[in-house]
Design brief:
single chain, 245 residues, Immunoglobulin-like, five-stranded mixed sheet, three-stranded antiparallel sheet, 36% helix
Length: 245
């Protein structure tokens, strides 16, 4: 092979290799938008289902004293948003919630479950006469703290007719503050948002699960996913009236 022939074929190989390289890169560039498009078309991660697991009770005293959560059924005009057993909280001053179907004046009371002490620890006018639906009362606003391992009964009275107690509707629930173990404390510190609601619910800490999801709804009232989570929790303990189901 002459030197001129070598140069001729050598240049052809160089050109061929270069063209092959350009084609490969070009192909990769053409595929990349498709990959991005495929990734973009993937649905957003759905929020996990949250299940409330009632706590195991060693002392049935609170369960025996019981509570009346509302008038019952879909026609309920007043319900405390509490389970049918002593719900738990980790807070000294939790927020308590109830549902009123009609905008009527409401009285709130909380007392120790003790037959020898009938006077309430707190008695206030609560609620807004112009507002119906889910309402709340923060014990911190009234300087009342719950003691650990003590059962309390809280109630809401809807005044149907001023001066006529016979027509009032009363709903009540039970609450008890517990001290968390190290494992639960660690899980709580590592959890946020909906995941934190799930931790509370799975540990039977009803009031903190409800308060956390309700606070999230207050900040993002347009987020129907959050509203659905709260409705699911309420339905799990039979509080269908508050969800409209």
């Amino acid at each position: 092979m002459t030197y001129q022939t070598f140069l001729k074929y050598g240049l052809q190989w160089v050109v061929a290799i270069s063209l092959g390289t350009v084609t490969a890169v070009s192909g990769a560039a053409e595929q990349e938008p498709g990959v991005k498009s495929s990734q973009a078309s993937k649905p957003a991660a759905t929020r996990p289902a949250i299940t409330y697991k009632p706590p195991l009770r060693d002392d049935p005293q609170a369960e025996e004293d019981g509570g009346t959560r509302g008038t019952g059924g879909e026609a309920a005009i007043l319900q405390v948003l509490a389970p049918d057993h002593a719900g738990l909280t980790l807070q000294a001053q939790p927020t308590l919630y109830w549902y009123a179907r009609t905008p009527v004046a409401t009285r709130f009371e909380i007392a120790l479950i003790d037959k020898d002490k009938s006077d309430p620890l707190l008695e206030v006018e609560a609620g807004n006469k112009k507002v119906a639906g889910i309402q709340q009362l923060d014990l911190g606003d009234h300087n009342l703290s719950l003691q650990p391992e003590v059962s309390y009964q809280w109630s809401v009275t809807q005044v149907i007719k001023e001066g006529s107690q016979s027509t009032d509707v009363i709903a009540s629930g039970l609450i008890e503050r517990m001290k968390p173990g190290e494992g639960l404390t660690s899980r709580i510190k590592k959890s946020h948002g909906v995941n934190l609601v799930g931790v509370y619910a799975s540990e039977g800490i009803w009031y903190d699960a409800l308060e956390t999801i309700s606070s999230m709804i207050d900040k993002s009232p347009e987020d129907q996913g959050l509203v659905a989570i709260r409705a699911s929790l309420l339905n799990q303990v039979g509080l269908h009236a508050a969800t409209g189901n």
